[in-house]
């Protein structure tokens, strides 16, 4: 599947991301300009930067980020504010501890609260922090996300010490949602080979902060 992709096609998988706490408005302007030049699908920024002019790109933001340890009504309010401020997509973080404790109904309820605050056509992605979960927990959280009406499941915030996306986690997530939801791989995807491996495993979106380097790998390696 991935062998037919070129840099332009791969760019359309990308949420071009800047979520560093020290990011400035000037940094976000530069992100947007770079994203337009690279032909990415969206830019993903912290909610305090909204509203913004993304020059025709989709606007994604985060919710309950990065810990997920927020009350559901607070997450819902944050998401609703972001939508009012023009976000097209919201990437929310689950309560990972609830998942670790096997409280998957609570995880579902948390996601459902944010879904209610972000009605279609807003896209809701659910960050499950896959590196901190067992395979069983990944499956159950993905089922909870689907039951709650999410549009995507997403591997990672990129801020958790357990790590980011892995091919193994993406394969499990993709198998669980069976094409009914999208799968976003994010966290540690830094090379062209990484990106293509994630897509081969079933990712339908990529969260990248080093997008230029990933897309530039096509030229450096003589094409894929």
From TrEMBL:
Pfam families: DeoC
GO cellular component: cytoplasm
Function: Catalyzes a reversible aldol reaction between acetaldehyde and D-glyceraldehyde 3-phosphate to generate 2-deoxy-D-ribose 5-phosphate.
Chemical reaction(s) catalysed: 2-deoxy-D-ribose 5-phosphate = D-glyceraldehyde 3-phosphate + acetaldehyde
GO BP, sorted A to Z: 2-deoxyribose 1-phosphate catabolic process; carbohydrate catabolic process; deoxyribonucleotide catabolic process
Catalytic residue list: 91 (proton donor/acceptor), 154 (schiff-base intermediate with acetaldehyde), 184 (proton donor/acceptor)
Pathway in which this enzyme or protein is active: Carbohydrate degradation; 2-deoxy-D-ribose 1-phosphate degradation; D-glyceraldehyde 3-phosphate and acetaldehyde from 2-deoxy-alpha-D-ribose 1-phosphate: step 2/2
Alphabetic keyword roster: Cytoplasm, Lyase, Schiff base
Location relative to the cell: Cytoplasm
EC top class named in words: lyase
Lineage, opening ranks: Bacteria, Bacillati, Actinomycetota, Actinomycetes, Micrococcales
Family assignment from sequence similarity: Belongs to the DeoC/FbaB aldolase family. DeoC type 1 subfamily.
Gene name linked to the record: deoC
Enzyme Commission designation: 4.1.2.4
Record-level Gene Ontology MF annotations: deoxyribose-phosphate aldolase activity
Protein name: Deoxyribose-phosphate aldolase
SUPFAM superfamilies referenced in this protein's UniProt entry, alphabetically: Aldolase
